[in-house]
Amino acid sequence: MTVNFKIQWFPGHMTKAKRMMEEQIKVVDMAVEMLDARIPISSTNPMLSGILRDKPSVIVLSKVDLADETKTKAWVQKFKNRNLPVCEVDCTTGRGIKQLVAMIQATARPVIDKWQKKGLKRRAIRVMIVGVPNVGKSTLINRLAGRNKIVTANRPGVTRGQQWIMIAKGLELLDTPGVLWHKFEDPETGFCLAVTGAIREDVFDKNQAAEILLGRLMAEYPEEVKSKYAIDFGSGDVVDDVMGKIAVSRGCLKAGGFADTDKATRMLLKDFRIGSIGRFTLEEP
């Protein structure tokens, strides 16, 4: 399905964050790149490869509790096939945290060996946590640190500065603000980032985003949509009509009993982001 969804969002604080990351990478030993398990392609920032250069890195698939479990397993295997260290982590429950720490330590082993050969005193491994906005970087660090050291919120743009956090595993972590890139070449990327919450809602057309999203869910996860909103529809039904059914079913009505599709749109986006409709993945491995 071709998506006509154009969006650009690169606020001033992201330019500053990019410069800070370029400066800090000089003293960083390795990186952890967090990807949203629902959109591993769209949440991969092409700008980061130029910043991280040849630093060892580990990929974390976050928000796995919101993603299709079968597809997440397939994505993990795809990364492994490319010989990339990858770990799926549920920051809400802490599942995968121990495996991630072990993977970071294993990936950092060549760095430590290099220090030993040079006769340098071993210190904590400095790890930079990177990713797009609202992918869960601060929540991951809170899990790794075992306490709430970082301010978190379910919206993009909360982490504005950079903070080093020491944890008890011989690791020193640097949290960085979520950073996007200047131009999304593929409209699909903008759509995926928008509906998963990586882009502020006031900079994209919510109605268009919800219409595209509902069309995808109707095609790929119809039973979950029917169950969540207590409605029925067929494969030939129009998205606008189904949105109207959702509005009526959930009491999103205007004066006179007409369907308030704007309210239904906001509800659908929220339900998708928090996983109350089901566990969905928008990108195939």
Word description of this protein:
- By secondary structure, this protein is α/β, with parallel strands linked by helices.
- It is 42% helix and 12% strand.
- The chain is built from 10 helices and 6 strands; from the N terminus they run H-E-H-E-H-E-H-E-H-E-E-H-H-H-H-H.
- A 6-stranded mixed sheet has the order 3-2-1-4-6-5, with helices on both faces.
- A hairpin with a 3-residue loop joins strand 5 and strand 6.
- Helix 7 packs across helix 8, helix 7 crosses helix 10 and helix 9 packs across helix 10.
- The two termini are 16 Å apart.
- About 4% of the residues have low confidence.
Widest sheet: strand order?
3-2-1-4-6-5
Query: Strand tally, please?
Result: 6
The biggest sheet amounts to: 6 strands, mixed
Radius of gyration: 21 Å
Mean pLDDT over the residues? 87
DSSP helix count? 10
Structural class of the secondary structure composition? alpha/beta
Order of helices and strands: HEHEHEHEHEEHHHHH
Strand content: 5-15%
Global morphology: elongated
Helix content: 40-55%
Spatial separation of the terminal alpha carbons: 16 Å
- Return residue spans where pLDDT drops below 50 for at least 5 consecutive residues: 150-160
